[in-house]
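Why do we bother with a discrete structure alphabet at all? Because it lets us treat a fold like text: something you can write down, compare, and reason about line by line. To make this less abstract, here is a complete entry for alanine--tRNA ligase. Read it the way you would read a sentence in a foreign language you are learning: slowly, and without expecting to understand everything at once.
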Amino acid sequence: MGDTGPCGPCTEIHYDHVGGRNAAALVNQDSPEVVEIWNLVFMQFNREPDGRLRPLPQCHVDTGMGLERLVTVLQGKRSNYSTDLFSPLLGAIERGSQAPPYQGKLGAEDAHHVDMAYRVVADHIRTLSVCIADGVFPGPSGAELVLRRILRRAVRFSSEVLRAPPGLLSPLVPIVVEILGEAYPELEREKSQIMRIVGDSEDAFLASLQRGRRIIDRTVQKGGDGAVFPVGVAWSLYRNLGFPLDLVGLMVEERGLSLDKAALDELAVQEAEMKVRNQQADEAPARLQLDLHSLAELQRQGVPSTNDAPKYSYTLEADGRYGKKATAPPQV
């Protein structure tokens, strides 16, 4: 998926929802009628930074199937959201909001973004539930920051577009558990914690959302540079209140203005470069890193792998602290 790393030729399986025709020209053309449901990548090369392809010491097949897309085919639907993996969630969202029923509209047909909001909330609550069950909580950095932005996007769409009262998201968690719990039993085990974290995070962001809405409204009332919303205000909403920029764009668009996305992208690039410089300044000299070809050569020469078993040999003391078991000296 990146510029370097393991890669190889692939074969893909695409499904034509129409059928009875030669749809080869529609493959990988973003057609909603012809969708990829499966692929297999024959991992046999490593693409080096200079672009060369070096044979891998070991070859593998990387295969992936889209569960929702396969269910769509099996149930004779045209959209993932029309299957029973999503329909119970969409029904619950309708009952918990003031929005009209879900109609599956896309693009220009979905003039007020209502159907998009249905899809966002249904998809995001599944993501939140599975991630929190796996121990990733909404937070300030890394994967936790991504999850926090996903939650805030769901809250914004439920509140602003679907006109749902506060607290829509948490009651959706048991429905996710009912749909996915058999495959992911950790969802059932962590259901109460997921509901609590989602509910608390939703309440906290709704307060920020109200504040951000007031800031946007005051800025619009003051006028300024024609139909373009001030970049500095948009960036402040993103950096200080945690508003994803796409949500700022939607809120601004609803008020008849637009965002200077190029200027915002430039600010994002500058901030990323600053983080890299600060990180490089703080880091100690990098340790030697062996690539997969070097590791394969060590194995060929009979150098044994490091025995990591001793670091997993521990006991839990009565006071909750970890203690080591008596073991032989670790091998390296």
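What the structure line is telling us, in plain words: The chain has three domains: 5-65, 78-222, 225-280. Residues 78-222 form one domain.
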